Structures are given as structure tokens and as C-alpha cells.
Amino acid sequence: MSTAMPRLPTGLLVLFALPTLPMFLLRGPAFSILPALYAERFGIALTVISGVLLAVRLADGFIDVAVGWGTDATRHRWAGRKGWFLVGSLATVACIFQLYVPPSGATAAYFGLWFFIAYIAWTINEIPYGAWAAELTNDYGERNRIAAARQYFNVASALLLGLMPFLPFMKSQEINFDLLEVVAWTVALSLPLISLLTVWLVPHGAAVVRSGGESLKASWAAVRGNRPAWRFLGSATLAGLADACMAGLGFMVIDSYFGLKAAASIMLIQWVVASMLGVWLATRLLRRFDKHRLFVGAALLSAVMLLVNSVLTPQTPHLMAMYLSLSFLLIMCAAVTDMLPHSMVGDLVDYDEWKTRAQRTGQYVALLAFVRKATFGLGSALSIFIAGSFGFEPGRPSYDTAAAIGLKLGMFWLPMVLMLAGAALMWGYPIGAKRHRAIQTRLQRRAGAPAAP
Predict the structure, then answer these.
(1) How confident is the model at residue 127, as a pLDDT?
(2) Of 15, 183, 276, 438, which has the fewest Cβ atoms less than 10 A away?
(3) Is residue 448 in a domain?
(4) How far is it, in rounded angstroms, from Cα 350 to Cα 373?
(5) What is the CATH number of the domain that holds 165?
(6) Into how many domains does the chain fold?
(7) pLDDT for 369
(8) Could you give the CA distance from residue 20 to residue 337 in angstroms, rounded to a whole number?
(9) Contact 119, 63 (CB under 8 A)
(10) Are residues 135 and 281 in the same domain?
(11) Is residue 453 part of a domain?
């Protein structure tokens, strides 16, 4: 990245982040709602569906890396990141009705085929979009602003999904294929237009100096030798596993163990409000603290909240108020640890470019995307396995000590340890604001451009 880049105007920032809304509206139900609906309507065994999801996860690493390398290798051709992003958006629209509005005789093979095709389309959209976000600016603080804008629309997508069942034309407020058809139409009508406007009006970002071709093997060797990258990815992995463990058991804790069935519907609204507030507060704190320090603080506070939550029992006085209050703080922290890696990955790319004289934004974004998706599947499965191993089963009127311990181990104690380990690993991350300014100065001098003030 050769020259200092201006602050992105607010209008363009909103437009750039806007595609996050329809894309996450579509992806949100993919792993949490879609498998259950296919199993219920078409009689497909959950073991078969889980096998399909596992197969997609196994292929995911290869798909992410290949797309990341491809978008780096063609950044100077076919409209660069924008071209890949637009193709991914249009490919997504081309396949969503097959997956979200299936025919009456859909089988496990049908589900597996279209889920895999849709996953490829989403990856072709996601990786170049993340690389484009990293290249929109080379400023350490401006990347926080871009990441926060995308996170706001991510959270808004969950709110929109929660409100859709209450539209006047909906036959019921249930989460079913009727709802998913509305989701599909919403995305089909909005995503192409939003993507075209974004590609047309938002700048490419950094003018990357053209370099010679690099094989995938050589590129991977360079990435593997980047020690700060592995500290960064390791911390993101640990925090992601912690979040996934909580996601896997969160509903069971509220509904079955605590017996707070009324709180389940409140939790979605709480998640939206707490996430929005967490992102807003993070943008203010980032004016004073480095990104990795704020990540550490959020992870440590999460660990404290998890420990306090683990003390609660069904007999705790004012249980609903206590749990919702503590969970509110926990969700705020989770929003911060979820947002910050998207901002930090661009700084990591600058460090790699300074060290190796090559620019691999797509590949680092792909690694981060793979880590986030893989940890979600692994963490949720692990926490459910732990709870089940101790004899916990949803729906029982009461639970013995062993079942309660297993549930708390998977929901609270294991995530607490993971958050503490992630904080410890991130503490020594070497790229703060001061170091990044020095890296940018050296990159700009190498390119013969004036340094940023």
C-alpha cells in the first residue's frame, strides 16, 4: 500500500458496509435453522445432515485458501476485488431459492449439493469483500471504523430476521420454510442492486504495486513464516471456540436448566441491543487503546462474566434479572472480540508486505474466515458433547449434580479458560498503532510516496 489514504466519507462507508445486511440475513439461518427444517419436513436423519455439514467444513479450508489466493493473483484484472465480490453476490442469488425453497421431494443428496454450491458462492463473495475492506484504507484507526460499520449491519440482520415472522402477510410467527422463502426473496431483490451500487461508487482502495506471480505453495510458505499472524489467528481461534461453546448450549441453559422459557424470546432483542452497544463503546475506546489491548480487555471481562454466570442455579433469587444482566455484559464483550479481528487483519497484511514485499490480503482474510467458520462448528459440537457426556438432556424437569456440572463445564468454564488463553496469547501481539505507523512509513518510502502525517 503505497500512499496515505483519506478518510472514507460516511455515505460511502455506509454503502460499503450495506451488503453485510442481506448476506448475513441469508447466512444466519444456514447452520442454525436450515438443518432442523430439512430434517423435520423431509425426514432426513440428523446424523446424515451433520455429516453433510461436516463434509462442507472439511472442504471449507481448501475453498477459502483457493479463493483467497485467486483474488490476490487477479487483483489487477477483471475489476480486482470488486469483480470477485460481484460474481459472488450474483452466484448467491442464483442458488438461494434451490436451498431455501426446496421442492417437495428434496433428499439428503439434494440438501448436500445445494448447500455446497451455496457455500462456494458465499465464499466467493466473502473473501474478496473482506480483502477490499482491508485495502480501503491503510490507516490503523480508520480500519476500526470500517469494521464497526460492517458489524452494525451484521447485528441488524439478526434483528431483521427476528422481525420477519411478524410481517402482516406471514401466516404464522413460526420459523419455517415460509419464513426462509421471504428471506430468499428479500436477498434476491436487494443484494444485486446493493452490490452493483457498492462496486460502482466505493473506491478500490489501496493501489497495490503489481508484483510477479507467486505460486500457492510459495505464498503459503510465506504466510506460515509470519509469526504475528499465528499469534493473531491463535487468539481468534480461542475466542471463536469460546463463543461457539456458548452458542451451542445457550438455549439449553435458558430453556431447560434455568427453566426461563420466557427469557428465550427476550434474548434475541437483548443480543441485538448489547451487540450494538458493545461495538459503539469499542469505537470510542479504540481512540485511546490499541486493538489488541482492547481485545485482551474484552476477553478478560468475558472470562469474569462467565465465572459469575456459572454460580447461578435454578434456585437463585431474581434469576431472570441476574442472568439477563450478566449476559448483557458478556454479549457486549463478544461483539468486541468478534469485530476486532476484521480490523486487525489489514494491519497484519501491511506487516507481511513490509517483510516479504508481497501483498496477500485475500489469503489472510481467507485464513481468518476459515478460522471463524471452523471454530463455530467445532466449538458448538464440543460443548454439546461435554454436556451430554455428563448426562445432561434437554427437557428434563430437574438435573442432578453431574448433569449440571457438565452443562456448566461446556457453557461457562471451558469458554472461560479459552478466553483467558486467547487474552494471554494476544497480549504479546507486536502490531499496535505506533508500530503500524512505522510500518506504513517504511512501505511509503519504499514506494517513493510521501509518508502519512
Answers:
(1) 92
(2) 438
(3) no
(4) 24
(5) 1.20.1250.20
(6) 2
(7) 86
(8) 18
(9) yes
(10) no
(11) no
| Contact call for residues 81 and 128 (beta carbons, < 8 A) | yes
Q: One-letter amino acid identity for 262?
A: A
Would you state the pLDDT for residue 269? 79
CA distances from 94 to 91, 97, 181, 185, 192 (A): 5, 8, 14, 11, 10
Let me know whether 59 and 141 are in one domain. yes
SS3 state at 180: helix
pLDDT value, residue 212:
44
Residue 185 and residue 292: Cα distance in Å, rounded? 40
**Cα–Cα distances in Å, from 431 out to 179, 228, 347, 357?**
44, 8, 7, 18
| Better-predicted residue by pLDDT, 148 or 387 | 148
Q: Tell me, yes or no, whether 408 and 302 share the same domain.
A: yes
d(CA 191, CA 205): 22
Question: pLDDT-based confidence at 396, cuts 50/70/90?
Answer: confident
Cell triple for residue 342?
476484521
> Does 449 map to a domain?
no
Give CA–CA dist 275/332, Å, rounded: 5
Name the nearest CA neighbour of 17 among 139, 123, 122, 145.
Answer: 145
Q: Do residues 234 and 356 both lie within one domain?
A: yes
Tens digit of each residue's pLDDT (9 = 90 or more) over 37-46: 887 788 887 6
Residue that finishes a domain, picked among 169, 187, 211:
211
Rounded to whole angstroms, the Cα distance separating 308 from 266 reads 21
Range of the domain at 388: 222-443
pLDDT for res 376: 78
Residue 77: pLDDT band (50, 70, 90) is low
Q: What is the DSSP string of 107-152?
A: -HHHHHHHHHHHHHHHHHHHHHHHHHHHHS---HHHHHHHHHHHHH
pTM as predicted: 0.83
Q: What pLDDT does residue 132 have?
A: 92
Q: Hey, what's the cell of 378? A: 467445532
Cβ(49)–Cβ(112) under 8 Å? no
Task: Measure the CA–CA gap between 348 and 229, rounded to whole angstroms.
Answer: 7
Q: How far is it, in rounded angstroms, from Cα 58 to Cα 280?
A: 35
Length of the chain: 453
Other beta carbons within 10 Å of 293: 17
pLDDT at 74: 79
300 and 331 share one domain: yes
